């Protein structure tokens, strides 16, 4: 009797179809997620700074008050521009690398299925639609994990 030992897999196995450009996209997506995640505490900091300046003793002086509000408004504008770039990088890079890796996964999965003996299809597969549905659903799950879940987990690490 032959025992089948199941190989332990890790989270890194979902990135097994990544090439050099995909690694670059993942690094840029990680940096975008980090920038997106750190923007929320920065927004809280700027808001707290604005509230402290409004309650300061010099707040009754109109010129001082206007200058302080303008500085904080400028900080919010810079933060919004940076967050826009970070969100774009996060979304675009993770989605693009997920599409590329899922495409390579579909190709290798289909090649592995087509290498099977004809008897395999007689015993295990009822129709060719089952093979196509299996390839599509499995690759879409992997693509969803890479494009959304990994980017969101990076975002929440920096929140």
Automatic annotation (TrEMBL):
The keyword Protease does not apply. The chain crosses the membrane at residues 21-43. Keywords: Glycoprotein, Membrane, Repeat, Transmembrane, Transmembrane helix, Transport. GO terms for molecular function: ABC-type transporter activity; ATP binding. GO terms for cellular component: membrane. The keyword Zinc does not apply. SUPFAM superfamilies: ABC transporter transmembrane region. Pfam families: ABC_membrane. Residues 27-151 form the ABC transmembrane type-1 domain. PANTHER family: ABC TRANSPORTER DOMAIN-CONTAINING PROTEIN. Belongs to the ABC transporter superfamily. ABCB family. Multidrug resistance exporter (TC 3.A.1.201) subfamily. This is ABC transporter B family member 15. It comes from Olea europaea subsp. europaea.
